Amino acid sequence: MSFKNKQFMFIAFCNHLSLPKSTILCFLYYIVSFPFCHCRLSAEEVMQWSQSLEKLLASQRGQGVFREFLKSEFSEENMEFWLACEEYKKTKSDHLHGKAERIYEEFVQSNAVKQINIDYRTRETTAKKAQDPTLTSFDEAQKTVYVLMERDSYPRFLKSKAYLSLLNQLQANTLK
């Protein structure tokens, strides 16, 4: 049976169990992203995600599962902006201007397609810093978005059927 057929069977099985779409998306992300990974996701790793948003974001797989949850809530722009800022901090100085412009246009400006939820003062300060960019140009806005995720999305993620189902499934597999 092909990998694609297994995915379709998995979706049908999840629908039969009446699992929410966010749970299915999280499981599918895991299956598609790590189908042949020797180091499978463990219940221990998933439990560590509940210790802090920092620990969740430190895990590549945690980022992916959290991002799928945010997509189900229509707020993935926060995670995308945070990741773009992390990548931006690694930028060589001769590429700063172009990357700063892209991040500003995509996430910060008032009519951005993926506009992040930041206050007017932070938006204006970030706009000025993006015009003459440094590696710290987006730090204030990134911190604001991080706090928003930490206080709002992250607690809902930990209580979500997606996270709890994933954790329960992995714990059940550990007991086998």
UniProtKB/TrEMBL annotation:
Domain RGS residues, every copy: 52-167
Keyword hit for Cell membrane: yes
GO cellular component, one term: cytoplasmic side of plasma membrane
UniProt subcellular location: Cell membrane; Cytoplasm, Cytosol
UniProt keyword list: Cell membrane, Cytoplasm, GTPase activation, Membrane
GO molecular function: G-protein alpha-subunit binding; GTPase activator activity
Pfam families: RGS
Keyword hit for Transcription regulation: no
Topological category with respect to the lipid bilayer: Peripheral membrane protein
GO annotation terms (biological process): leukotriene signaling pathway; response to bacterium
Name this protein carries in UniProt: Regulator of G-protein signaling 1
Organism of origin: Crocodylus porosus (Saltwater crocodile)
